[in-house]
Amino acid sequence: QVQLVESGGGLVQAGGSLRLSCAASERTFSTYHMGWFRQAPGKDREFVAWSGTYTAYADSVKGRFTISRDNANMVYLQMHNLKPEDTAVYYCNARRTSDGMNSWGKGTLVTVSS
Known about the structure:
Helix content: under 10%
Largest sheet: 7 strands, mixed
Number of strands: 11
Shape: globular
Distance between the termini: 39 Å
Number of helices: 0
Strand content: over 45%
Radius of gyration: 13 Å
Structural class: mainly beta
């Protein structure tokens, strides 16, 4: 099972930017679809962005967040114009295209102050 490690979280003021990174333990470019999810305190984990056969974003982040991948093992989430409601633990997800197996990272905390 691929191992995923997120980084780049931190404390930022509203309106600021952060770039999250997710490093996979193996090459994922052609064998995994990748995405980002988040979980705010007291809430369920929710979808944020996806990069597979298509790119998709949650309505709440469209126009502010951008998902990208390199041709090896990295996936990124560039976040602009951050809002306090973006505060959450952000998780990287990898779904293997051959059998749909899902892998999760341990998450990175993003805190947006008002």
